[in-house]
Write a structure and sequence with these properties.
Elements lengths: L2 H19 L6 H11 L3 H8 L2 H13 L3 H14 L4 H18 L2 H17 L4 H9 L10 H6 L7 H12 L31 H5 L8 E4 L1 E5 L10 E9 L3 E11 L4 E13 L5 E10 L11 E11 L10 E13 L8 E2 L3 E2 L11 E10 L6 E10 L10 E8 L5 E10 L11 E10 L5 E9 L1
Parallel strand pairs: 2-8, 10-16
Antiparallel strand pairs: 1-3, 3-4, 4-7, 5-6, 5-8, 9-11, 11-12, 12-15, 13-14, 13-16
Helix pairs in contact: 1-2, 1-10, 4-5, 5-6, 5-10, 6-7, 7-8
Length: 455
């Protein structure tokens, strides 16, 4: 095993160990700290993350030729690279279901069910996953009931084992096995997989229960003014409730316009779902603006998204009448009397990344290097991105910043979303701020900004 592979193996094992000890997912900062501790470069992590599409394509080819073992290996690699992408997890669930259809191995059935459940936790609107869970439930003549199956919480292979699988298949290029954990949520890769024909009589297949379609609808919203900081408000853009047979979800997103005279560093909010009679269905606290994002100057506009998902405890006729939002707290500082205008900068589009009609204007607001770590340089930079009038709106925009030395060689990279695709799109004439946090082994001379994904 190469030295790079050993480092990544140690990294994957360390992440796995810490994740098992925590009820919550490790934060971006925790994962970056582990990577720095073990000598994993962000450039390698970013490059490996972008190979997920290749693994998916190979997996689809294997499924097409009924080579399910090979397909599962490829999809498992893709899940390691993008562990929070529900479509990637669902692709793996479909592959296990296809192998169960072909071989009848009950372990594959359980694995398909668990992975479909995981994909629904990330995207409750993934209707195909509900249908797959219905199809792979144990048959009536089995002793295990569907209720027991759905509550068994059978886990996927340990993270460390899957990480080693990546190393075995991709070699040194797999040193970014856990790149996705370093980044904000990725654009979903939709990869429908044809399922092998079952060995049961056609009549029996036709008699299988069909899952009920989810009942979806927009829910009215009410936002309570935040009296502590006048001018800091919530503008809710989306409020959608979906009720399935044994679960429900609530999705919301919106904007945080800073009409105050304060610099907003972070903000937390709360949403309460209520029935028409005032009965509270759920109350959930969430981050409106996280402390690692660019601070919002007066006049800036932040964006957020929210997902609540509850499984197995909801009556079928549940229908909240209103979602009540409030800002719970905000971390602020006195704003400057006047901020300098951001400096317009040149940037480039990666080949094929610019959708028709979408144009951007980019200006640099801040650029700070610090050597508070003995062996690394920390970069924090923020950029204001504006869509000029006449541009198409932007539903998702992802940037990469390359750090260059005096000879123009890339010595480090970082990636960040301007808008993730879950937040409200940016309209023409509007601006948002994107911030990069990165570590490099040596101090760069300059940076290069590239748009790598957009729609």
């Amino acid at each position: 095993m190469s030295e790079a592979s050993k480092i990544i193996s140690a990294y994957v094992a360390r992440v796995d160990e810490l994740q098992k000890q925590s009820d919550d997912r490790l934060s971006v900062y925790q994962l970056k700290a582990i990577a720095r501790e073990l000598g994993v470069s962000e450039a390698d992590l970013a490059r490996a993350e972008r190979t997920a599409h290749d693994h998916l394509q190979r997996g689809l080819g294997y499924v097409e030729h009924h080579l399910y073992d090979d397909a599962i290996e490829e999809f498992r690699v893709a899940v390691v690279l993008r562990p929070l992408d529900p479509a990637v997890i669902f692709a793996l669930a479909q592959a296990y279901a296809a192998r169960w259809d072909a071989n009848g191995d009950d372990d594959d059935r359980e694995e398909a069910d668990e992975l479909a459940r995981q994909s629904l936790q990330l995207d409750p609107g993934l209707k195909e996953a509900f249908a797959l869970r219905q199809r792979v439930q144990p048959r009536a003549d089995r002793t295990q009931t569907s209720t027991a199956s759905s509550s068994s919480k059978r886990t996927a292979p340990p993270l460390a084992a899957v990480g080693l699988l990546v190393l075995g298949i991709t070699g040194v290029s797999g040193v970014g096995a856990m790149a996705y954990w370093m980044m904000t949520p990725q654009q979903s890769i939709r990869a429908p997989i044809p399922v092998a024909a079952q060995d049961e009589p056609v009549a029996q297949q036709a008699a299988a229960p069909v899952p009920a379609a989810p009942r979806e609808g927009e829910i009215a919203v009410r936002s309570t003014p935040f009296d502590t900081i006048p001018g800091l408000t919530l503008d809710i853009q989306r409020s959608e409730f979906s009720n399935f047979n044994d679960s429900w979800s609530y999705k919301a997103n919106g904007l945080l316009p800073n009409g105050s005279d304060q610099l907003v560093k972070a903000a937390k909010g709360q949403v309460t779902l209520k029935m028409a009679d005032g009965t509270v269905i759920a109350t959930e606290a969430f981050d409106i603006h996280e402390d690692y994002a660019a601070p919002l100057q007066p006049g800036d506009e932040g964006a957020y998204d929210l997902l609540i998902y509850t499984e197995g405890i909801t009556p079928g006729d549940l229908a909240p009448a209103i979602a009540e939002f409030t800002i719970l707290s905000a971390e602020t500082a006195a704003a400057a009397a006047r901020y300098p205008d951001p400096t317009p900068i040149a940037f480039s589009w990666e080949e094929g990344a610019q959708p028709p009609g979408l144009t951007l204007e980019v200006a640099q607001r801040s650029r700070v290097y610090s050597d508070h770590l003995s062996d690394q340089t920390h970069f924090r930079g923020s950029y204001v991105v504006t869509l000029p009038p006449g541009s198409a709106s932007a539903e998702m925009v992802k940037f990469r910043v390359d750090f260059l030395d005096a000879k123009g060689a890339v010595i480090g990279t970082d990636e960040s979303y301007l808008v993730t695709g879950q937040e409200p799109p940016i309209a023409p004439g509007k601006s948002r701020v994107v911030q990069f946090l990165a570590f490099t082994d040596t101090r760069p001379v300059r940076e290069r900004l590239v748009v790598i994904e957009a729609r």
